[in-house]
Design brief:
alpha+beta, two-stranded antiparallel sheet, 1 helix, 26% helix, elongated
Length: 50
């Protein structure tokens, strides 16, 4: 398991080192949102519940 911290990535006993490095390089390169498609708008629009 990997733990995403606000300041650094932390290695836990079942986190493989190459996964940790891949996630760190992705974050440093700014590629976190490169492969994610934008979410479509909701239809119908949301209405507040009172």
């Amino acid at each position: 398991m990997f733990v995403e911290g606000t300041l650094r990535w932390q290695v836990t006993e079942d986190c493989p080192w190459d996964l940790l490095m891949a996630l760190a390089i992705r974050d440093l390169a700014g590629l976190a949102a490169a492969g994610e498609p934008p979410l479509p708008r909701l239809a119908p629009a949301l209405a507040p519940v009172l």
